[in-house]
Design goal:
heterodimer, A: MetI-like fold, 3 domains, five-stranded antiparallel beta sheet, flat, B: alpha+beta, MetI-like fold
């Protein structure tokens, strides 16, 4: 035993243990997020619990969580435990939905209280545009207050058909709101700014005013027509109603325009469940958020993240590559080079929040404020570029990710054998030509790697963005159909910030938690995917040059 | 023919040469951009931060003759934007004039309105605090007249026009303060809504306090007053003393009576029960300080400032000790020569002292800063007032009025104020406090960077406590013991952790780990204790295995072997957790900690942050340390092994020593990352700026503080600049760590290349 200890073998095993811990931590974390995130899309069984209690006899909902707690904790909380045996008790967290009818849409129940628990096939979960999910039994479908269900057996298909109609109208309404109405509002705002611009330049005259008013009147006219159309669609949406019976046994009627989807989760076979699963994933990535981000999809956040990251790539790539070329091809062994190297290391090490502070002060207030005074005096005091926006976010993150691109590109450059350079120079090419024609094409996978890593870093960075342009809910995307199409001054939504905002700032964290896991899964998939791609590209590059060397 | 070709070749060659030069220049410039970017960040942060340490300046702007010569000024004042000023005289006149020249029609000093407020002889005069802006003239027969200068502001043609007017909120006929009609010799006044409080020294030396509660008749708009009066017995043994000055607090609860006799004293009178005012405290002043020559309340009305003939100025506020509250001398200032007038600012804790030598001295109490001293423009000012926005000063010199521009933007900050212990108003003792904002305008901001720097260090400490052992040990094993094929998989897997967005780690820490730690605290602790024991046990069991199996599954594969062991230990301790809790901690460990051990427990605490941030730092440390260990030349370790050392001996005596600079650099880099990390701390702690090493309590770090407060701070304000300072501190911290780490790494590289 003593000799065994002396051999150092236990210590080797200890170090091995830390590797296992680290591995378990990484894989466990990814597995946890994947499991929780994916189960958000899987159709959960809807349970009906029966109690012996007088005040609540039936509870309908999804089981959200279960845990074992010591009975003593219940005693401390003042719960009557006369009917409970043993020292531990299982309790369930049940999502009961029906937010407007019950005080809390989540409730804890104790297992011993349950008399009977079943999953009736008729239980339906309605996804609604307001107030979250509704759980209950489908009773009737109405048109203008009259029932349209002739055959009770076909009630589900009637509901689906009416729902489809309402959804179609809803889409039409939305496209009018986002298309013509948004465009008219934008043009009206432009006219207001035109007038102000004329005033500032001293070119304002009665003729100009008459022309502006004529255009405004035209736009208003158009607006009224579109508005009529929209109102007609909205009125049409209210035609149908759905009648439900909830867990209190009461009949509840609400408009079909609120119903987005109906799911009989207990009456699905495996194939249907998978179908539902993929449909939900599709909806998650393509739909807009609802109910202050706690429901619906994350499309604007995906769009904002991608747009910002692309913008950043456009900025960071040339600078990063040029700096790397300088460091590897041109720089002599002098103090300036050494200082630049230290600058690169430090740019990589400076906390991201410091970049946020710098971006806010320098880009937003100083550069943006100056731009506003020069180019957009007509909209002052409302800032155009003098306020956080997507351009400033991209610029800030470009500085933040600059070292990533530099380091990766430089590594690629150093892998190119010097014989290649010498060969090119010997054939009479200038240094610039050698770099442009020979070195850069060979280093392009390395540049690609750097760019991918930079994108992965930028996509996950939140702290600086909180200061320079990200918002919890942006009314418009940074790209739309109004000239000049790319609106770099707009604020945007971001997946990482979405996680922070929904997980920590939303009023109903419990309800939003699965959505946060799903968003995290999406983000992690993108980032880990990007990183693996970068590693793959890098390894291929290494193999390629290894063969070149021999 | 040939010649022209040569020429074209030559010109093409020249063009190529020019292109080459241009490329060289452009690339060099591009490379320099990196350095410029870093310098830009550094200097921009500095540029925003520096103004907070700038002293105040006072420069003359305008001067003009008094509107009415030969009269005595009792008060000066100005409108919020310092466009119109006014002067009240002892004769009972008010004069409004243009304070500054705004345009051709509005010249400085031009009298806008002049009116006699009181036709009768004025016996005393008093004013309320600046926020109310009331003035009171006492006239013969123990009566008082309350008036208020007011402005009607209009915007004809988008030009701000201020039209002064005089308001008598309680009528133009004086109110009868003393029913017996004695003349008032000295007066103090404050108003809270329509409740007035007056303290008056009457002709027969009686000190009377009176509270008048007014109720307005809705129809006639006349006031009906219910009045309570009381006589103050302030002497407390000082029979020969006489009253010099009276001062009321705006909350109508206290009266300060300054008396001069054999000794200089300030008596604090509790006036909550007006009919029976109580002497609460008597503050004696040392005689070498000289006569008390000025007394005022600071903004916020908690601090009493007392100025002396010797130039000594002392600050006093109430501190509770042994269950009762008492005025305590908190700090002192010195204006050089006799203090003639003390002028507080309306919102901040700055004050201005005019001295007998004609100097203006500017101080700030919280930061103990002496911001200015001297005679601006050579003027010897006597009577002065500071505008509500503290950017203009109106003062009198002889028969002239002077308007001075005041630049005193960031008096709240001093080196001592940021890093030292400060005694704040309403605090019982000096403390390190960060509290930047509050609901009220005249709140005393508390900008101590100590608690948030402490939080940063605490968070980094617990993170490093977890990350350094795991990161380094894992690096050593991976680089030195692991089979190359396994290493190829393990290294990128651990390194991918670095790419995980910290917002996800923070979210998991706050919403998954924190509740888990809270409910399974005993399990966590058991896991930490059990894990090393089990690993050693596993190693021993493996050691007992027959040789041929051991040769197949070598040390090099131990990490894989241990994965199920670690998972099992984790599962075991967590499932045992409720049982342990029940057996040792009465079913609820959290409750036990709080009630039995007296340790505070926050759900989002340093333990959670340590684990989550440790997790984020592990890959940084692992990656650099692994490279360092791996690049130790093989002939060194082979030599050691050949001389008979065991693997472990070789590792500790040869490999680690050689790689130590790299390991040091890894730890530094990790520390740099832990110090600056924002999202994890923001989400996994309660963000309360407390100073306590307790692992079960939260903290607020510099970075989280910036993220929380930056969006709501006003651009250019002191708060904004201090947040920039916090960013600057972070920048310098990490700059130091990274630069040192880089230098060490460079040295290491040079050393290996020689080996």
């Amino acid at each position: 035993m003593k000799t065994w200890f002396k051999s150092g073998s236990p210590w080797i095993w200890m170090t091995a243990g830390t590797v296992s811990v680290a591995l378990i931590a990484v894989l466990g974390l990814i597995a946890l997020i994947a499991w929780r995130g994916l189960s958000f899309f899987w159709p959960a069984a809807i349970h009906e619990f029966h109690f012996s209690d007088q005040e609540r006899q039936v509870l309908i909902g999804e089981i959200y969580d279960r845990e074992q707690i010591p009975v003593t904790r219940l005693v401390d909380a003042g719960v009557d435990i006369s009917h409970i045996d043993g020292e531990f008790v299982t309790r369930y967290l049940v999502k009961v939905g029906n937010r407007e009818f019950v005080p809390l849409d989540f409730t804890w129940i104790l297992e011993p209280d349950i008399v009977r628990q079943e999953t009736p096939k008729d239980l339906v979960m309605l996804e609604r545009a307001r107030n979250g999910n509704f759980y209950g039994y489908l009773e009737d479908v109405l048109e203008n207050g009259q029932t349209v269900v002739q055959d009770p057996a076909a009630i589900r298909s009637v509901l689906r058909e009416r729902m489809r109609r309402a959804l179609q109208l809803r889409d039409e309404g939305l496209s009018i709101q986002r298309g013509p109405i948004a465009s008219i509002n934008y043009q009206l705002e432009q006219l207001r700014l035109d007038r102000r611009r004329l005033e500032l330049r001293g070119e304002y005259s009665d003729e100009a005013e008459a022309e502006l008013q004529r255009q405004e009147e035209l736009l208003r006219e158009e607006y009224r027509a579109v508005e009529q159309e929209l109102f007609a669609i909205r009125a049409d949406m209210e035609r149908d109603q759905v009648v439900m019976r909830d867990m209190r046994g009461e009949r509840v009627t609400f408009s079909m325009s609120l119903v987005l989807d109906a799911t009989w989760a207990n009456d699905m076979n495996l194939l249907q469940k998978w179908g539902y699963f993929f449909k939900q994933i599709g909806k998650f990535v393509t739909e807009d958020p609802r109910e202050s981000n706690t429901e619906g999809g994350v499309f604007p956040a995906i769009f904002g993240t991608v747009f910002m990251v692309l913008l950043m790539s456009v900025i960071v790539t040339p600078f990063g590559v040029i700096a790397a070329i300088y460091l590897h091809e041109y720089a002599g062994k002098n103090n300036i080079t050494r200082m630049i190297r230290i600058a690169v290391i430090n740019l990589a090490g400076v906390p991201s929040i410091v970049y946020g502070v710098f971006g806010l002060g320098f880009f937003v207030y100083m550069v943006g404020g100056t731009l506003d005074q020069i180019f957009y005096p007509e909209s002052l005091p409302n800032p155009t570029f003098g306020t956080p926006g997507v351009l400033w976010s991209a610029l800030t993150l470009a500085i933040l990710t600059l070292p990533v691109v530099i380091v990766s590109t430089e590594e690629g450059l150093s892998r190119i054998p010097s014989t290649v350079r010498e060969g090119s120079l010997a054939l009479g090419a200038t240094k610039a030509e050698t770099i442009w024609r020979i070195i850069l094409p060979m280093a392009s996978p390395a540049i690609m790697t750097g760019l991918i890593l930079a994108v992965a870093r930028a996509a996950g960075e939140v702290a600086p963005l909180m200061l320079v342009g990200v918002v919890k809910s942006a009314p418009t995307l940074p790209v739309d159909g109004n000239f000049p199409f790319f609106h770099l001054d707009r604020k945007f939504m971001h997946l990482g910030f979405h996680i922070y905002d929904v997980g920590f700032q939303s009023p109903n964290v419990e309800a939003a938690r699965p959505l946060v896991y799903a968003t995290s899964l999406l983000l992690i998939t993108v980032i880990v995917g990007l990183n693996l791609t970068a590693i793959g590209v890098r390894n291929r590059l290494r193999e390629k040059f290894r063969s070149l060397e021999h | 023919m040939a010649g022209s070709q040569t020429a074209s070749n030559f010109s093409a060659g020249k063009l190529r040469l020019i292109k080459d030069r241009a490329a060289r220049f452009g690339v060099t410039l591009g490379g320099g951009m990196v350095l410029i970017a870093l310098l830009l960040i550094f200097f921009y942060l500095l540029y925003v931060v520096l103004p907070i340490f700038r002293p105040a300046s006072i420069t003359p702007l305008e001067s003009y003759a008094l509107p009415s010569q030969g009269t005595t000024t009792v008060a000066l004042g100005m409108e919020a934007r310092a466009e119109v000023g006014y002067r009240l005289t002892a004769e009972g006149d008010i004069e409004f004039f243009n304070l500054r020249t705004l345009d051709q029609d509005r010249q400085a000093g031009q009298v806008l309105k002049s009116e006699r407020v009181s036709a009768e002889t004025v016996t005393a005069f008093a004013r309320s605090h600046q926020g109310n802006g009331d003035y009171v003239y006492a006239v013969a027969g123990g009566r008082v007249l309350i008036m208020r200068p007011d402005y009607r502001i209009t915007y004809p043609n988008d030009v701000r026009l201020v039209e002064p007017e005089i308001r008598y909120p309680y009528g133009q006929t004086p109110l009868q303060l003393d029913p017996e009609g004695r003349d008032i010799r000295k007066l103090a006044f404050e108003r809270d809504g329509d409740t007035l409080m007056l303290a008056a020294l009457l002709a027969d030396d009686t000190l009377m306090v009176a509270r008048l509660v007014g109720r307005q008749n809705m129809l006639t708009r006349a006031f009906q007053w219910s009045t309570q009066r009381g006589v103050v017995n302030w002497r407390n043994g000082a029979q020969s003393a006489r009253i010099e000055q009276l001062l009321l607090t705006p909350n109508l609860r206290q009266l300060f009576v300054q008396s001069a006799g054999t000794q200089q004293r300030v008596h604090v009178i509790d006036t909550r029960d007006v009919q029976n005012p109580v002497l609460q405290q008597t503050i004696p002043f040392a005689s070498q300080l000289g006569r008390i020559s000025a007394m005022t309340l600071l903004a916020g009305h908690s601090s009493l400032m007392v100025g002396h003939q010797s130039g000594h100025i002392s600050q006093w506020f109430e501190v509770s000790s042994d269950g009762h509250r008492e005025y305590v001398n908190v700090r002192n200032f010195n204006a050089g020569t006799a203090v003639e007038q003390l002028i507080p600012e309306q919102y901040r804790r700055s004050f201005y002292a005019l001295t007998a030598a004609g100097d203006v001295a500017v101080f700030h109490t919280t930061s103990s800063r002496h911001l200015f001293q001297g005679q601006p423009g050579g003027l010897q000012l006597s009577h002065a007032v500071v505008g509500p926005r503290a950017n203009h000063m109106l003062a009198q010199q002889g028969e002239e009025l002077h308007v001075l521009t005041l630049r005193n933007e960031h008096p709240e900050v001093s080196w001592h104020g940021l890093w030292g212990q400060i005694w704040y108003e309403n605090y019982d003792e000096p403390s390190y406090t960060w509290q930047s904002t509050s609901g009220s305008d005249d709140f005393e901001p508390k900008f101590s960077l100590v608690p948030i720097s402490f939080g940063t260090i605490k968070a980094a400490f617990y993170a490093m406590l977890i990350a350094v052992p795991i990161g380094l040990a894992a690096a050593v094993y991976t680089a030195y013991f692991m089979t190359p094929s396994l290493r190829k998989v393990v290294k990128p897997t651990i390194e991918i952790m670095e790419a995980l967005p910290t917002v996800i780690l923070g979210f998991l820490a706050g919403l998954w780990l924190a509740p888990l730690v809270e409910s399974h605290l005993p399990g966590f602790i058991t896991f930490l204790l059990l894990l090393p024991l089990t690993i050693i046990l596993a190693a021993f069991l493996w050691h007992l295995l027959p040789e041929n199996i051991r040769n197949y599954v070598t040390d090099a594969r131990a990490a894989m072997l241990l994965i199920p062991v670690v998972i099992f230990v984790g599962w075991l301790s967590f499932s045992l957790s409720p049982l342990i809790e029940l057996m040792f901690f009465g079913g609820d460990m959290r409750d036990y900690l709080t009630n039995t051990l007296g340790i505070n427990f926050d759900q989002r605490n340093a333990l959670v942050v340590g684990i989550a941030m440790g997790f984020a730092v592990i890959p940084t440390i692992f990656s650099i340390a692994e490279d360092a260990v791996f690049s130790v030349p093989k002939h060194l370790s082979n030599g050691s092994l050949a001389l008979g050392a065991t693997e472990w001996q070789t590792l500790t005596r040869v490999v680690l020593l050689t790689a130590s600079p790299g390991i040091f650099s890894a730890v530094m880099m990790g520390l740099g990352r832990a110090v600056g990390e924002t999202m994890i701390v923001l989400m996994a702690t309660g963000n309360t700026p407390i100073m306590d090493w307790n692992i079960f309590e939260g903290m607020r770090t510099l970075s989280a503080n910036i993220a929380v407060e930056m969006p709501e701070s006003e651009v250019g304000s002191t708060h904004y600049r201090i947040l920039f300072l916090a960013a600057f501190v972070l920048f310098i911290f990490t700059f130091a760590f990274n630069t040192v780490a880089e230098f060490v790494r460079q040295r290491l590289r040079d050393k290996y290349s020689s080996l």
